[in-house]
Specification:
about 325 residues; alpha/beta; Leucine-rich repeat, LRR (right-handed beta-alpha superhelix); twelve-stranded parallel beta sheet; 12 helices; about 45% helix
Length: about 325
């Protein structure tokens, strides 16, 4: 591999001996930092070879195995590689069919690793409440972990609510991506309880769920307490005027909150006006998305806010009134 730092081999239909040879070369490299193998034919056997490379490499930091048939046993051997690695920081296993037991094995590795920071197990992975509880417990005690993506797993409220514990207890966790998981207001309230106590948490992504005003109000209160929170994305939810008004209050109260995405919710004129007034007074906020909301004549207030605070990017449908 020479002095190569990043190897992009996604979509090359690599399998069997090809994956084993590549893993051997990666293990021997003194410079390789990123290995991208998305959309190939990596299975348990290939995962075993890659796990050896991960554990022995002193430089490998990023491995992308999106859209491969890793499976439960493959995830388990990769977990052993993570636990033994002194360099790996990020593993992407989107649509890798790892199952709940595979995720539980990865959770154990997260707790043991001194360097591992980010895990993406979104998409087709057949996760359940047991593995989310295990992940939450491990993240709470992990030394370096910063970000978890479990979007598109349709886990439901009970499973996702376990993550409130991780948000509250972890000294390092910064980001959760929880889109398309059938999350409701009660789930969000559990996460918000943790968010308000965290000194590290920065970004929460909740697109395509069932979050309404009660959830938004709970999040707004937590954001107001937080000393670190920056970004809340809530596209395709059910937030209305009351939730928007609470979030406007959070914009005013927080000194770190910068981005609010409410694309395609139920915010009307009253909520839009409240957000516009908050933006006119803030010095730290940077972006608001209100596109596809029934804000009616609220566009006029947003236009005034845009002129008064040109540092903020405000997006809305101009046909909704100006």
């Amino acid at each position: 591999m020479g002095t190569c730092k990043s190897l992009q081999l996604s979509g090359h239909r690599l399998q069997g001996d090809q994956v084993r040879q590549l893993a051997h070369a990666a293990a021997a490299s003194a410079t390789l930092e990123a290995l991208h193998l998305a959309n190939n034919s990596v299975t348990e056997d290939g995962s075993r070879a890659l796990a050896k490379a991960i554990s022995s490499s002193k430089t490998l930091q990023i491995v992308d195995l999106t859209d491969n048939r890793i499976g439960t046993l493959g995830a388990a051997v990769l977990a052993k590689g993570i636990a033994a690695s002194s360099s790996l920081r990020s593993l992407d296993l989107r649509n890798a069919h790892i199952g709940s037991e595979g995720a539980i094995a990865l959770a154990a590795a997260i707790a043991r690793s001194d360097t591992f920071e980010s895990l993406n197990i979104s998409g087709t992975n057949q996760l359940d409440s047991n593995c989310i509880q295990a992940l939450s417990a491990s993240i709470a005690v992990a030394k370096a972990f910063k970000g978890l993506n479990i979007a598109h797993n349709h886990l439901g409220p009970q499973a996702v609510s376990h993550l409130g514990f991780a948000v509250e207890q972890s000294p390092t966790l910064q980001e959760l991506s929880l889109g398309s998981n059938d999350i409701d207001d009660r789930t969000v309230e559990a996460i918000a309880d943790g968010l308000g106590q965290s000194t590290s948490f920065k970004r929460l992504h909740l697109w395509d769920n069932r979050v309404g005003d009660a959830g938004a109000i709970a999040l707004a209160k937590a954001i107001g307490w937080s000393t670190s929170f920056e970004t809340l994305t809530l596209p395709d939810n059910r937030v209305g005027n009351e939730g928007a008004k609470a979030l406007a209050g959070a914009i005013l109260e927080s000194t770190t909150f910068r981005v609010l995405d409410l694309f395609r919710n139920s915010v009307g004129k009253e909520g839009a006006v409240a957000l516009a007034l908050a933006i006119r007074q803030t010095r730290h906020f940077s972006r608001l998305d209100l596109c596809k909301n029934p804000i009616a004549g609220g566009g006029k207030a947003l236009q005034v806010a845009k002129g008064a605070n040109q540092r903020v990017l405000i997006e809305w449908d101009t046909e909704q009134g100006s």
